[in-house]
Amino acid sequence: MVTLDHRLEPEGEVRRFEVINGAMGRRRWTADDQARILEETLAPGAMVSAVARRHGLTPQQLFTWRREARKASETVPAFVPAVVTQEIAPASEPSPTYSRPKRRGRQRRAAAIEVDVAGVRVMIENGASPSTIAAVIGALKAGS
Q1: How many alpha carbons fall within 13 Å on the CB side of residue 110?
Q2: What is the maximum alpha-carbon separation in the chain?
Q3: Cα–Cα dist 117/2, whole Å
Q4: pTM for the complete prediction?
Q5: pLDDT-flagged residues of the chain (< 70)
Q6: How many Cβ atoms from other residues are within 10 Å of residue 51's Cβ?
Q7: Burial of residue 137, with CB atoms counted within 10 A of its CB: 0-12 exposed, 13-18 middle, 19 or more buried
Q8: Which of 18, 21, 25, 112 gets the highest tally of CB atoms within 10 A of its CB?
Q9: What is the rounded CA–CA span in Å between residue 84 and residue 76?
């Protein structure tokens, strides 16, 4: 007669095990911790399941975090590259034989910074103080 050993571990070997108490509730991860763990999954050659095991998570949880991060990044306006070009003066036409004295009025200065957010265009001219620029950008962030 053959008897089967129904024990999971042989006698004499002591193994560590973890007891999960349901009274603790869900584990809360800070945004910094989530970002750090997600960054590990995006490294070249990283396996999501290995990263999940290392942090006591399931791969499904990490994929959910990745999907949520991707959706959040789509809603935040992305920065666009700034292109600086030199203005080309239009070719001057030949002046008439008579000359008129030029008026010395207020000259219009070109905008140094131009921001267009949700249909609102703000031009910040040369010489604006950094505190003014910060206030304008803060107001645009608050309004969007």
Answers
A1: 4
A2: 126
A3: 79
A4: 0.39
A5: 1-14, 19-25, 76-111, 143-144
A6: 19
A7: middle
A8: 112
A9: 24
